[in-house]
# Entry
Amino acid sequence: MFDFVHKKKRIVQIILALATLPFLFWGIESYNSSGEGGEDYLALVAGEKIMRQEFEQALRNQQENMRAAMGGSLDDAMLESPQLRAMVLDRLIQQRLLKHEAVRVGLTVPDTQLISTIQEIPAFQEDGAFSKQRYETLLRGQGMNPRMFEARVRQEILRQQLTDAYAGSSLVADRVTERILRLGGERREISLTHIQPEQFLSQVKPDEAAIQAYYDSHQAEFRLPEQVRVEYLVLSLDDLIQDQSVSAEEVQEYFEGHRSDFEEAEERRASHILIKAPAEAAEAERSAARARAEQLLIQVRREPQRFAELAGQHSEDPGSASQGGDLDFFARGMMVKAFEDAVFGMQPDEISDLVETDYGYHIIRLTGIRPARSARLDEVRAQVEQELKKQKASAVFDRMAEEFGNVVYEQSESLQPAAEKFGLHVQQSGWIAKGAGEPPYFSHVRLQEAIFSEDTLRNRRNTEAVEVAHNTLISARVAEHRQAATPPLAVLKDEISERLVRERASDLARSTGKEALAGLQAGGGSVRWGDAQEISRQDPGGVDPAIIRAAFRVSTTSLPVYAGVENSQGGYTLIRVSRVVEPAPANAAERANFSRQLRQVYAQEEFASYLDGIRKQYNVTVKEDLERK
# Structure
């Protein structure tokens, strides 16, 4: 579906998000001011500390962002991964670097610009005018005061001035654009044959000396990590929900008090044809796009029955063009305002005038209306019952959680007292490797740390109650423990033999393939080729990227031409290129659009290099390796 989420670069939108989203990823200035005297910091950037409190808050913010964006599809193990922690710290470091660099190069933010920026933020306005009372109230709700917020806005404007300089400075020569377009659209007809290790397995018989030598030289590879088996208890809100009951009276009362929650807003279904003309495009480019759209609108109105066909041919929204321009049903608030206002002011089968947005020019056809309606209780009874059960379970869980933690700590010799007190079942795990536990619980970083702590291993005490997911607590107790060790050769002999057979068969497949390629290139050889297929760099047709690269790397001055690559199965793939199909020349609009995309890519690469450069200029010290925590 066409992405109508408005992604403006203006500073007003950035600060609006900062003001209205409590979980947005930003450093907390108040932590800096209150904690500079302490030593509990994670990194030092040009003499400025990134405090642990600031990092933990930023991490929580990022976790909430991820939960909000991905919902139930999110693996909670991702929220505690070392990679996420390292990414959060790296972004905080990047913010500091950009702030210091902006000051170094002499960028400033006049008070008039700061005031104007803040007053333009819609969240701080009432009846279209800035409201000081609303401003202060919203900031208090986010735990900020005006001084803190204005300092952040000033810093963000400085950073934006620095980054904007790169966004608009990249240039791409016309001949470069045209050449890349041609190379991307060029198609080649290829045929393949695969020489795989399986063809040579029966020819390989490793002897005892080879097996012993392989074992001796791969000791670290075969070493098993430290492992434990544990008993554990799970206290989960989800489990408690199933134990709750609600009466018919409670369901009726909740429904009557929350009728608005079950109202379905009016939805409309529309199809559109988009002629791209981004807001930042040159006026000449936007004018050309509008002229194309106007001509297309004339054709659509003359032949409305061909709307889907014309959308497939002309729309520059790749997501919906293949569906005849169909965007399915949507409610208000899901599209950009100009598009939405047009759709909700149309009649069924009506075709709009041109609608201009920051994406370009749209021709819209309204194809369906679902009126607003209020749900009946019998339609939402299960939903209401689940919500009431969740509310009751949440109250029970809140009472039990603290007590659960106390019991497993105070009676740490066994999990049985906690199991009996809270009606839980003591569960048994399989073998858990240190640093490589299995989801959903034992891959959690904090639970792993607790299980493999010295006190838990040596004294066989219960771990603390660890929150491994939202509203899910676990306490574990080690039942068995294995130190890291390398199994003896007798245990690994068959596995090593299979490895050696596979490796040698792969060597034979590759050498056979290279000999066959040499024969083909010399004008001889006989190969049984697969069916011919056309490929391009833009449309590889499911062909392995290494084959694509090899097929387009060879000179096609004389056809057929041959190439070969080692394939991912350990064998060798021979490639025959038998035909080249040149693309049709791109029109002016296509060239302009592609040139803009190239400029954006170059700008991103240049800015990434710039960030890498300024990091080397400033003294950056990371106190802890978060990848290992």
Summary: Residues 457 and 478 are 6 Å apart (CA to CA). Residues 11-169+610-628 form a domain with the Triger factor/SurA peptide-binding fold fold (CATH 1.10.4030.10). The chain is about 50% helix and 15% strand. Residues 1-38 have pLDDT under 50 and may be disordered.
